[in-house]
Structures are given as structure tokens and as C-alpha cells.
Amino acid sequence: MSVAGPAADSRQQATTPAETKKRGEGWFGKLRLHAANIYRLTVKELRSFRSDPIMILLVVYSFSIAIYAAATGASTEATNLSVGIVDEDQSDLSRRIADGLTPPTFKRVIQLTAPELDPAMNAQRVLYVIEIPAKFQEDILAGREATVQIDVDATAAAQAFNGMTYIQNVVNNYVMQFVTGREPGIGMPVKVLIHAKFNPNLKSSWFTAVMQIISNLTMITVMLTGAALIREREQGTVEHLLVMPVVPVEIMLSKILANGVIIVVSAGLSLVLVVQWWLQVPTAGSTLLFLAGSCFYVFTVAALGIALGTIASTMAQFGLLSIPVLLVMMLLSGSTTPLESMPVWLKNIMLVISPTPHFVIFAQDVLYRGADASIVWPEIVATTAIGSVFFGVALYRFRRVIFSG
Fold first, then answer.
1. Which terminus, N or C, of the chain has the lesser number of Cβ atoms within 10 Å?
2. How far apart (Å, rounded) are the C-alpha atoms in residues 140 and 175?
3. Which pLDDT tens digit goes with each residue over 238-278?
4. pTM (2 decimals)?
């Protein structure tokens, strides 16, 4: 008994660390195997993307020329506006008003007669017509009420409103200067000073450029991840994955990682080369923080793309299915119109089901206002929470459709 006891204790002490080490190696070995599978599948996805010149061209175009064209072409600023004037007064004041409509806001004023007014607007020769009645200057000097009529082609409502505001300011300023003999605002009891923060020149291209990156990032991420899955189903290569020792979550993560790297790198290059260098748009915040937040957003949107890819069985079906989803996400994200202008119930729904409004708020706070991580972390958390739900739904659909189909 005295010999067997220590021997048994010795054997027990010798085997316990080995068993513990074996269990540790087993857990670490499984984790290393999953990581190796994800790495190899990610390399496969990157090679598949490299062999698709159409997709490469689409990504390059979306984050370069498309950004520049949208920022410089889709402008609501009042520039090069065509104005006609019906001057029935032919006075010094009316000529001052006509001379005050100067480039680059306005083109050279076109002199019209009353019968030419409607044909000129119908033919789109002019967007605005200023009608100055007879005895306009005389009424002003006599202290009588005088009226100037401005006819506006309001087909493009935003541009029409901005241009009308400019014309009203020109008319009011020249009338005030003519009456008082000095610059408007001098001697007034209250002087209003306006300071525009973050965009002092009120240039729409500064806003549009960054928001276009977000829109294109959303669209391309959904298209790349969904198309990668649909392409394998159509080409029959998905059957190869079924016989390989891989699990669905490894396949999904590899597609998200591969396409996510492509999108985040493209977005970063677009922000630096196109927005900051080509368009000369200053950004107040950290580019690295924006790219870090983009990683969470790309994960979320890529999971949505895979979920859509499991619903559609062909590339054509996927395209038709993704169009309404993308339109709703982008139009109701706050990147084109403020969230505050939406109905409260719709705004609350979008903040719950869509990650795009959270990412738009994050991007605007970081790039426009110079916010740091301590301010924008709630938007990252919300995006991650929505992404977790999307990933869970996509994984369930992926297992059911691909591995059980």
C-alpha cells in the first residue's frame, strides 16, 4: 500500500498536465484550422475577383470617375442662371438692377418685351424673368408702394428657390442703396452676421463627394458579395465547397473579408485621391477613423448581400432584387436629404432596420466636424448590432439553401 500510493499519485501528476495540454492543443488546433480555411478561401475569392475584368472596371469607375461626376455635375447651387428682364420703366434704378445680376451666379441678362415673356420661358431660354413696371423709380422716390414681379421656372425646385433668393437680394439691395445713397445695412439698428461652419463657401460638391462614396460603397459591397455567391451557384463550383472540410461560416467570412478588403481600400483611395486631392474637398477628421468605421459597415452590408444572394437563384434575379433594397437604403439614409425632414415613424424604422443612416451620421461627424471615437461610438455599436442580425439571417439562409439544397 505504501509503494502503490505514491506511484499512483506520481502517475496522476504526470498525466494531468498532458491531458490539459492536449485539451488546449485541441481547442487551439481547431481555431487554427478554421483560420487556415478562411485564409485559403479568402485568397480564392481575391483570385476570382482578379480574374473578372468587368468587376474590376466597375469598382475603379465607381470610386473615381463616378465620384467626381456626381460631385461636380449634380449641383443645386445657383450658377450660370439665365435671367430675362422686362424693363417697362427704363430708369436708372432698373438699369442698376439689371447690371447687378453678374456672373458666375447669372448669365448676361436678356432684354425682353412683355409679349416675349411666355415664349422665352416655354422655350427654356430663361429660367427667371424680372418684370419692372412703369414709373417704378418714381414710386420708390415718392414713398409709394412699388412691386417687382419675378417669374420662375420651378421645374427644378431646389435650384429655382436658390436663384429666386439671389434675385430678391439683388433687387432689395439696389433699391435700398438707391434710396439711402449708401450700402445696405449701414445705419440699421440690427446687423446680422452669418458664419457658415464646416462649409464656409456653401459648396454642394463638398457634401456630395463624401456622400457619394458612401452610396457607392453600399452598392458595390452588396453587388460584389451577392454576385460572388450567385456566380459559384451558376458555375457549379459551389458543389466543390460541399465536399471540402469547411463549414458555412468559413465560406461566408471569406467572402466578406475578401470583398471587404477590396471595398475599404478602394474607399480609402477614393477619399484621398479623388475627394481630397482631385476635388480639393477638405476633411476635418481622421481618415483612419473613417476607414475603421467603414470596416464595420462593410461587414454589415456584405452580410446583407449574401442574404440576398441566397434568395435569388440567378444573377438577373439578384440584380432585380437588390435594386429596390439599395434604393430604399440610400434614399432614406440622410445622404441626400436630412433625416429630420423624414416622417418620425419612418426615420425610427430606418434607424432600426438599416445600417446606412448610422454610417452616414458617423461619416458626417468624422469627416465634416472632426469628431473622435468617443463621440461616434454609438453609431458603430448600432451598425454592428444590425450587422450581427444580418449575418445571422444570412448564415441561416446559407446553410438551408446551399448546404441543405
1. N
2. 8
3. 667 767 788 889 989 999 999 999 999 999 999 999 999 99
4. 0.79
